Amino acid sequence: MDENIKKIMKKILVTGGAGFIGSHLCEYLLKQGNKVICFDNFFTGSIKNIKHLLKNKNFKLVKGDVKKSFYFRVDEIYNLASPASPIHYQRNPVETIKTNVLGVINCLELAKKIGATVLQASTSEVYGDPQVHPQREDYWGNVNPIGKRSCYDEGKRCAETLCMDYYRQYGVRVKIARIFNTYGPRMAIDDGRVISNFIVQALKGKNLTIYGDGNQTRSFCYIDDLIEGIIKFMQVKNFIGPVNLGNPQEVKIKELAEKIIKLTNSKSKIVYKPLPEDDPKRRQPDISLAKKKLNWSPKIPLEEGLLKTIEYFRKIL
Questions:
Q1: Domain locations in the chain as residue ranges
Q2: HEC assignment per residue over 245-300
Q3: Class of 11-316 per CATH?
């Protein structure tokens, strides 16, 4: 982590704080000396992710749902409340879009009342199956509004619209972070994300399942790098975004599978299944804006991050 990140004690609300990214964010904000409220309904979050924080006097866990209005007196709000992997957000698509739309409205309404800043965790999925590569923030995307993924994709796009409208109409301070594929310890075993899937399959000696021909690409950012980017973004004044936060190193899915088999010393083979509907063929962030405005870029190489993640999964399996 960057030691230059300023340390000023604040009261901070993290919605979805018991999730994969949320729990790492809570942990780091506490290390900075802040008071943190973790607000989560445990739809996909886990108490295991924050168990080690519960004894910290500056940490408070509140079980609740962002779809209903809530009130906390805080300086900053990080809105991470949403299922983020297809297997979870497609499990209850109506719940997903309600969480993204009603959840951000409730965060923005609270911020309007108390004068807080809202950082909205948006996603690279707002770009859909992109026709522009790599993806820049001025690209409007190619999203199917009636597909199986649209509960998440369009929910996040609508959330960005609401942030900008609350900013323009009411002067609410907002920040929009478009988060690309992120990985690391505390990913759920059953979340359906490609890195956790491959690692768990490899460690269990099962075949690694690739959907499509494996030539589709993703760009993977290690969790510590992402958290640093999110916090720097919150601290930079007079910059709303949206800004891409992700690792610009593009990797073919079949190359990722081969690398994980090698790093786990697994005897697993690779098997291929049909590509799901509207699955993006390529994904790579252009992070020029993050470099310029936040002085941020990822530092942890893929292999180093994978080894840390593999070690985590070895322990929990």
A1: 11-316
A2: ECCCCEEEHHHHHHHHHHHCCCCCCEEEECCCCCCCCCCCECCHHHHHHHCCCCCC
A3: alpha beta
